[in-house]
Amino acid sequence: MGAIMASITSELLFFLPFILLALLTFYTTTVAKCHGSHRWRSTKKKRPNLPPGAPGWPFIGETFGYLRPHPATSIGQFMEQHVARYGKIYRSSLFGDRTVVSADAGLNRYILQNEGRLFECSYPRSIGGILGKWSMLVLVGDAHREMRAISLNFLSSVRLRAVLLPEVERHTLLVLRSWPPSSSDAAAFSAQHEAKKFTFNLMAKNIMSMDPGEEETEQLRREYITFMKGVVSAPLNFPGTAYWKALKSRAAILGVIERKMEERVQKMNKENSSVEEDDLLGWALKQSNLSKEQILDLLLSLLFAGHETSSMALALAIFFLEGCPKAVQELREEHLEIARRQRQRGASKLSWEDYKEMVFTQCVVNETLRLGNVVRFLHRKVIRDVHYNGYDIPSGWKILPILAAVHLDSSLYEDPNHFNPWRWKSNTPSSFMPYGGGTRLCAGSELAKLEMAVFLHHLVLNFRWELAEPDQAFVYPFVDFPKGLPIRVQRIAPEEEKILM
To answer: Average model confidence (pLDDT) for the chain?
Structure first.
């Protein structure tokens, strides 16, 4: 009985901040909503045909059920029950807002294709408070387009080939070479932690030319861990809360970035200075008209976006592959062939042509993104009255396109809860949107896929791995492995004619 009560208490404590947030949001927005609802009724001859659904409890709506943790390879009990009862498009009340929830592939695509015309990005204010008001995640309109253009320029195909591919491979090898030697009693370690270390060091180097292993880099990484916990927490800003701690870490991180900016400006102003570092900070200072505040938020948000989602996708790939030996074997054969061609031409590093030959690897990447769903849903707001599939969706309502629900839809993907990379050998359906779509398609999506492919190349050629203890990814609502995905590895021996590092 004590264990049950402890579990209940723990769960209530988890949801308490979200209840308080919903109450505050409800209090500040109820009048505006009522006014908007009256305006709809007064300007239309008939009442809107809203999607079916229910508002749930007073004030808090259905926030409880929506946030309940569940395995990442499922849509959770809340979504399953609501889709079964109301269909793939239904209305609810979440976080104090009247909301339309979409598990429909067509509507999700319609939302993303009409960004800025019928819908606009609308993340909670707390996200802007912690990532910054100039973060690409919260910006809309021209401001978003300007920041996105800078990011796309920095992540261009030319730069991916010439700069980022060698950097991704170098940072991959730095991580893998630190793994323990083959031993039957080798200690287990966290694959999720290693993936995070890999992606963080890569981004820190290419954003601000910070080298892995240095004290300043490690200090920044430690602050970033605290920062990340606050991004996905309820925005309760009083001492001791995750959000409060994250705001302190944000200040520390911005302090590091600002110091780097000052050092770079001084260096650029010196006569006969050496060649500048080829990083985003230098590019933003020299090629853009951004203010200091804008550059700080840009670098902070790209460090966030380029690290967190990519590392979790890589950890998911390691997890799924561990349970699918057939896929590992086909991956290894593909990369052995790439390595043989490498040796024939006398090369020691991967080329862009090698990367484009990783056909089955891309199948593994796609299946990992489909089944794992690191980005599970998007926040949007309806800015003009919308009529879709017989339903009226009023302006001012929130609308959540649930990407995970589409990716796990049995009418679109056969046996959707099963890891099957071979399904991608035929085609890529239009319902597959792991990085969003439209004008807000993730600017770093190609880099993220490159990171996964290069890491898997060296992983399967040099290691076998197994779970040290059972673990699986859960949604909290962010995706995380509760135990950190503990694994044990065994280096592949030279006599097996594998290509070693």
So the answer is: 86
Contacts of 4 (CB under 8 A, 6+ apart): none
How many CB atoms are located within 10 Å of the residue 338 CB?
20
What is the pTM for the complete model shown?
0.88
Cβ density class 297-307: b for 16+ within 10 Å, e for less: bbbbbbbbbbb
User: Residue type for 311, please?
Assistant: S
**What angle do helix axes 445-462 and 325-344 make, rounded to 10 degrees?**
90
Does the structure show a pLDDT above 50 at 484? yes
**For residues 21 and 64, is the Cβ–Cβ distance under 8 A?**
no
Residue 307 · residue 224 · CB < 8 Å: yes
Pick the closest to residue 29 from 94, 92, 77, 75 (CA basis): 94
Burial class, 23, CB count within 10 angstroms (exposed 0-12 / middle 13-18 / buried 19+): middle
Residue 402's SS3 state is strand
SS3 213: coil
Per-residue pLDDT tens over the stretch 214-241? 999 988 988 888 888 777 666 778 888 8
- The partner residues of 188 in beta bridges, in order of sequence, read none
CA distances from 190 to 225, 451, 465 (A): 15, 19, 12
Average pLDDT (65-86) is 94
Q: What is the pLDDT of residues 409-449, one digit of tens each?
A: 999 999 999 999 999 998 889 999 999 999 999 989 999 99
Going by pLDDT thresholds of 50, 70 and 90, the confidence category of residue 40 is very low
Q: Are strands 463-467 and 486-491 parallel, antiparallel or unpaired?
A: antiparallel
C-alpha dist (Å) from residue 219 to 216, 225, 281, 351, 493: 5, 10, 19, 33, 36
Q: What are the CB-based long-range contacts (under 8 Å, 24+) for 481-486?
A: 481/192, 481/315, 481/319, 483/190, 484/190, 484/191, 484/192, 484/193, 485/190, 485/191, 485/192, 485/315, 485/318, 485/319, 486/188, 486/189, 486/190, 486/191
Please tell me the distance from the alpha carbon of residue 227 to that of residue 220, in angstroms, as a whole number: 10
CB 93 within 8 A of CB 55: yes
Q: What pLDDT shows up at residue 185?
A: 62
